Amino acid sequence: MGFGLVIVGGLADPGPVKTLVFAIGLALLAIGLVAGAGSQALDRRARGEAYTGPSPFLAFAAVIPLTFLAALIVFRPLVALGLRADAPLATLIGITIQALVYIAVVRLLVIGPGALRWSEMGLRRRAGEIPLDIARGAVLALPVLFATVLVAALLVALLGTRPESPLPPASNTVDLLLNLVSAAVVAPIGEEVFFRAFATTAWARTYGVTRAIVQGGLVFALAHVLTVNTVDFSEGSRQALIAFGARVPVALALGWLFLGRRSIYASFGLHSAFNAIALLLSQLP
């Protein structure tokens, strides 16, 4: 029902009815997916499996309508008050909403039923270890970025297009700082909690370390394809392939570092430094 209403709302003419139908569809879709994830967790617990929480795939599916619904509720009044949807501040608000939804879904579907604990997901560390873990991750940012540039350059040469940045252009120092906070602080927090602390840990418990790193990395890269937005299918497909392939090196490195250190702060350090350096380098021209 929810998916059907989302389709109807998306095809409807602009207006309050379209917004209402779309919002109701998102709410029903989110409720159905969250309920399905809870049911799956109960089934796994009854079978006595090693990991008794919901599939990260199903949890990620629930994140999508919840994020759209929260963004719709938050942005409607802000846009009415004059906030530009393409401004760095709007991007920061949107990424913050997504990060909060990631954490809320993990708290509701994984921590709440006891499928995993925060300590098992690498979030509980002694205060003195946290800065060291972040630094250990940050020092890997340059070699991982070098590998990423090579892969991206090869894909751009083969496919003949270049994806646009998911962040809006920064026309002044304030905009640049807002983009830095979005890319190097807020986005890594939400994504590391979901894709590393939750998804990679769950898959490591179910399938082993190697498959968890590969599967978690590929899903992380695939999630970033959702930000590709073009009107031409051929162009969009090529940009999606580049966006996916270019993120595979850092995605695999993040999973390897997280499981190797058993610390979310190490993968956060790599993720944050990688995004910050990439963003600053993109500003050089």
Outline the secondary-structure elements.
Elements: H1 2-11, H2 16-47, H3 56-80, H4 88-111, H5 129-138, H6 141-159, H7 173-207, H8 209-225, H9 233-261, H10 264-282
Strand count, sense and barrel status of the largest sheet are: none
Number of DSSP helical runs: 10
Radius of gyration: 19 Å
> What is the CA–CA distance across the termini?
49 Å
Helix content: over 70%
Pairing-aware structural class of the strands and helices? mainly alpha
Order of helices and strands: HHHHHHHHHH
Average of pLDDT: 92
- Unreliable stretches (pLDDT < 50, length at least 5) are none
Q: Which shape, going by the Cα principal axes?
A: globular
The tally of domains stands at 2
What percent strand?
Answer: under 5%
Q: How many strands?
A: 0
Q: Which terms summarize this structure?
A:
285 residues; mainly alpha; 2 domains; 10 helices; 77% helix; 0% strand
Give a short overview:
The chain is mainly alpha-helical and 285 residues long. The chain is 77% helix and 0% strand.
Descriptive notes:
The protein contains 10 helices and no strands. The termini are far apart. It folds into 2 domains: 1-115, no CATH class; 126-285, no CATH class. Helix 3 packs antiparallel against helix 4 and helix 8 runs antiparallel to helix 9. It is an all-alpha fold and 285 residues long. The model has no long low-confidence stretch (mean pLDDT 92). Helix content is 77%, strand content 0%.
